[in-house]
Amino acid sequence: MNDSSGQELEARMRELPSIDEILNSQAGAMTSNEIGRERTLGLSRGVLEKVRNEIDPDGRIKPRSELLEVIGSRLEEELETRRRGQISRVINATGVIVHTTLGRAPLSEKAAAAVLKAAGYCNLEFDLQTGKRGQRGAAVESMLAEIADADGALIVNNGAAAALLVLSALAKDGEVIVSRGELVEIGGDFRIPDVLEQSGAVLREVGTTNRTKIADYEKAISVSTRLILRVHPSNYRIIGFTECPNLSELSLLAKKNGLILVEDAGSGALIDLGLFGVMGEPVIVDVFAEGADLVTFSGDKLLGGVQAGLIVGRQDLIETLRKNSLYRALRPAKITYAAIEATLQSYFLGAATDEIPVMRMLALDPAHLKLRSDRVAERIRSGSDNSFSVEVIGGVSAIGGGAGPGIELPTSLIALSHSSLSAKSRVAKLRKNDPPVIVRIEDGRVLIDLRTVAEDEESELVEAILACA
Ligand SMILES: *Cc1c(COP(=O)(O)O)cnc(C)c1O
After folding, report:
1. What's the gap in Å between 401 CA and the centre of ligand 1?
2. How many CB atoms lie within 10 A of CB 22?
3. Whose CA is nearest to atom 13 of ligand 1?
4. What's the CA-to-centroid distance between 180 and ligand 1, angstroms?
5. Which of 89, 221, 322, 398 has its CA 20 to 30 A from that of 411?
6. 266 C-alpha to center of ligand 1: Å?
7. Considering only CA atoms, which of 225, 232, 280, 231 is closest in space to residue 253?
8. What is the DSSP letter of 61?
9. What is the spatial distance between Cα 354 and Cα 109, in angstroms, rounded to a whole number?
10. What band does 112 get if pLDDT is binned at 50, 70 and 90?
């Protein structure tokens, strides 16, 4: 920047209204009326800062009065966002079932109702039979143990918390053996070596990225070894020349040497998802039956519940976890127990494929999706002028949430092009719709996958699309 443009920028900055002017403007006064002067001051400073940062050093200077108006309407927008709340329902038209940035699994109707029921006072730690203090989450955890055919179960805040608690309570100051093929990173900030370090246990890597033999595990065992950890690589597959011992072999080795065998199963399939063409997800009952002492998994991936970390396995180990001081920091809120209980009930009562949205979406028949897509496409065509080109094409939906990488569920896609508006600008408009609609873009076309859109959301979806033309 040369001198003269620097001076010009300074001149421009002087055009910015002062905080007092903003507070005394009409918008400022109205905001003050609603939320008080102190909060309005805070909002105004934020808006002013943003407007200052947006000043284009080479752009046209807006006169002060115009800037004051811009700032006024921005202030109203900020206030409106706070009235509405930042978290809003969205229509997920991406076809990604466990969408990490859209809240992962949607709750079942029963789970949502259970959350409401637990919102007020509830018998979280109160035994209604005896009138005495009960164990937090006892009923939910015993149902979880029954479903997994395990002796015990414990619920914490998420899968990461489950891994941290297990390693910290059972292997602190000792060694944990992990195959090099399983030292994975899951979703940016969950890395097995880091969690191990946090827990105070020492990582003992064995084998190679693609091949680890039982003998590699055996050679690594020393007096300091506490635990063998197996990690389901979730979002990642090694294919080709690979080898790893199965759980039963590892279990024998662990028992012979007095070690604990833990499997971090990731997604936590409670039923065999091969039923839906989803291969390679460990089924929890099998993992326990094959000899793992403890299994940990997430509550809001393929299980289809709420964010939670579920731990099942040997009762004595579960009790050790429960007594560990870290558990107090990792135990979930009452609404988590409520949502997990309702979700598990669906599995226990054999109704999961009907009641759990994730299961229903996995099970959707491609012919049915084609039918719905044709119907929605027709509604868009008949509601719009000729600026839209609407086509139904074949495509694939993804599971998401770091589960079943490479698994493609056949689906139908509604492909939308527009004669004058770019896909990018239409996607931005859809995001600003009420409710926001989230879609995919491919080759300059907006793609809608109805797999993740409920049938009763179709009208809102059609309206949103027509409104962005
Ligand atoms: C997702 C995942 C985790 C972390 O679970 P969160 O519930 O996301 O904390 C841990 N381990 C594996 C193998 C996973 O797939």
Report:
1. 9
2. 25
3. 266
4. 18
5. 89
6. 5
7. 225
8. P
9. 11
10. very high
pTM, two decimals, is: 0.91
Q: Are 402 and 100 in contact (CB under 8 A)?
A: yes
Q: Is the distance from the beta carbon of residue 195 to the nearest atom of ligand 1 less than 6 Å?
A: no
Residue 40 identity: T
Torsion from C-alpha of 195, 334, 296, 325, nearest 10 degrees: 50
Q: Give per-residue pLDDT as tens, 391-403.
A: 999 999 988 877 7
Distance CA 45, CA 27 (A): 14
Cβ 332 under 6 angstroms from ligand 1: no
Q: Is the confidence at residue 3, as pLDDT, over 60?
A: no
270 in ligand 1 pocket by Cβ < 6 Å? no
Please give the structure tokens belonging to residue 128.
């209604």
CA distance 241 to 237: 12
Beta bridge mates, 133: 126
Q: Which amino acid is present at 394?
A: G
Token look-up 């999706």 returns 369
Q: Round to whole Å and give the CA distance between 278 and 234.
A: 12
Strands 175-179 and 309-313: unpaired
CA of 403 to the centre of ligand 1 (A): 10
Q: Peptide bond before 332: cis, by omega within 30 degrees of 0?
A: no
Listed residue (367, 337, 338, 363) closest to 352, CA to CA? 363
pLDDT digits 0-9 by tens, 211-268: 999 999 999 999 999 999 999 987 777 778 888 999 999 999 999 999 999 999 998 8
Q: Is the CB of 157 under 6 A from ligand 1?
A: no
Nearest to 166 by CA among 189, 198, 207, 138: 198
Query: What's the CA gap between 125 and 68, in Å, rounded?
Result: 55
Query: Closest by alpha carbon to 167, among 249, 264, 72, 74?
Result: 264
* Residue 84 in this model has a pLDDT that exceeds 70: yes
Tokens of 115: 């959350």
- Separation of alpha carbons 192 and 47, rounded Å: 41
Cβ(104) – ligand 1 distance below 6 Å? no
Cβ atoms of 184 and 155 closer than 8 Å: no
Three-state SS for 165-215 is HHHHHHHCCCEEEEEHHHCCEECCCEEHHHHHHHHCCEEEEECCCCECCHH
Q: Is the separation of the CB atoms in 260 and 317 below 8 Å?
A: yes
CA 339 from centre of chain: 15
Nearest CA-CA partner of 392 in 370, 408, 368, 421: 370
